[in-house]
Write a structure and sequence with these properties.
Elements: H1 6-13, E1 14-16, E2 55-58, E3 64-66, H2 67-76, E4 83-84, E5 91-92, E6 103-109, E7 121-127, E8 131-132, E9 143-144, E10 151-156, H3 159-173, E11 178-181, E12 191-194, H4 217-226
Antiparallel strand pairs: 1-2, 2-3, 4-5, 6-7, 7-10, 8-9, 11-12
Helix pairs in contact: 3-4
This protein binds adenosine-5-diphosphoribose.
């Protein structure tokens, strides 16, 4: 999905509006009636060029902004063929992340979690070895470290928990569970860190605050997965 013109990705999910609304562009903060400060990129092959005064409207959420501002934002990211509306965060296409290579293993534990006495436990073990940062990372070519791996995580083995597990597998394949950055816990830069989808890393204790009981955990996980574009709809065959 990455070998495509950036302009085509923009034009797939935004349409040019005729009457420009009297609003500001959420990216550059200038009025939409003024042209974008970004220039039309030199066109390589085919397609229609996006012009500085083109105002685009997202096809689902309807938010409007300079198409060249959106193009610049896209080119600044991982260029995975997906767009995210900067106003409401609606995702177009399939968002992928920058998680380094590694392993996600799943085990079943008979013991129940605090707060979920009626079912056993699913254990996930994430292993990621240290390596070199790629072009999608903050410091390409530099090494990244991996602290606290393998990381052990726990989910109640009930219907909702198994649904969360399936969505986490999808998020793992899309490289969304971890990223390379600065750890907010340790301050260490260039290291593998969680990427906004909370996990429970303590099974029978709750010393870190990332343990059980937590009656909201599964619902929170579902909404954090959804904000990365991973929803039940992704699990259904097309
Ligand atoms: N368990 C689960 N999640 C955690 C933990 C933890 N012990 N500590 C922090 N988080 C959550 C934070 O709430 C935050 O939302 O991870 C997110 C990113 O925090 P960072 O400190 O940047 O992440 P990272 O350095 O990857 O993790 C900190 O998590 O699993 C442990 O061993 C790991 O001690 C490390 C800690």
């Amino acid at each position: 999905a990455s070998a495509q013109r950036s302009e085509d990705v923009i034009q797939r999910y935004m349409e040019v509006v005729a009457g420009v609304p009297d609003e500001d562009c959420i990216i550059c903060m200038d009025q939409l009636s003024n042209p974008s400060g970004y220039e039309t990129p030199a066109s390589d092959a085919g397609g229609h060029n996006i012009l500085p005064d083109n105002v685009g409207k997202f096809i689902k959420c309807g938010h409007t902004l300079h198409m060249l501002c959106m193009l610049a934002m896209y080119n600044n990211g991982t260029k995975d063929g997906s767009l995210q509306c900067p106003s409401c965060k609606t995702i177009y296409g399939e968002k992928t992340g920058t998680q380094p290579k590694g392993k996600m293993e799943i085990y079943s534990i008979a013991q129940s979690l605090p707060g979920h006495p009626d079912c056993g436990t699913i254990q996930i073990i994430y292993s990621i070895p240290p390596g070199l940062q790629g072009p999608e990372h903050p410091n390409p070519g530099q090494p990244f470290s991996c602290r606290g791996f393998p990381r052990f995580c726990f989910i109640p083995d009930n219907d909702k928990g198994r649904k969360v597990l399936e969505l986490l597998k999808m998020a793992w394949m899309r490289r969304l569970i971890f990223t390379v950055g600065t750890s907010s816990t340790t301050g260490e830069p260039d290291t593998v860190v969680w990427n906004g989808i909370h996990h429970k890393t303590e099974m029978m204790s709750n010393l870190s605050g990332h343990g059980f009981p937590d009656p909201n955990y599964l619902d929170n996980a579902l909404s954090e997965l959804a904000s990365q574009g991973v929803t039940e709809a992704c699990l259904k065959p097309p």
